[in-house]
Amino acid sequence: MSDIDVVDDGTLNALVSGIEDAWNAHDMSRFAARFAPDAEFVNVAGWWWRGREEIERNHAVLHQTIFRDSTMRLELASVNQVKPGLCVAHVRWRMVGHGAGGAKQTTEPRAGIWSWVVRGRQGTIEIVSAHNTDTLGMPATHPLAR
Fold first, then answer.
1. Model pTM?
2. What is the pLDDT of residues 34-60, one digit of tens each?
3. How many other CB atoms are found less than 10 A from the CB of residue 5?
4. What is the C-alpha separation between 15 and 115, in angstroms, rounded?
């Protein structure tokens, strides 16, 4: 199989759906399979995991504990083609049913943005880097608030 020249929205939406389905099934083997063997993942707490095996192992622990009853909805928000077969995608997410977590250590519904570097390789696409961020409201007193 050849490398993919363009990582298009349809292919990316299938990746997003696959990640969402695996998360909601709490199937971290299927979740991690969407990542390159040498992928890197930075979670909302800034914990940096290297390699598909570590990404799977750590998510499996979390899905046995604080994410055991969680469900997540994902939406492809933007795509920037960097070069043929390589893009940066931003994915909005909303999660409910989780234990205390995130920047505010809350059990309330959370939302955020996932930044992915995605490459086409051997006829498929895979995430090579992921950085997850909680989206927090801006305080009215913040200099950027309008």
1. 0.91
2. 999 999 999 999 999 999 999 999 999
3. 11
4. 13
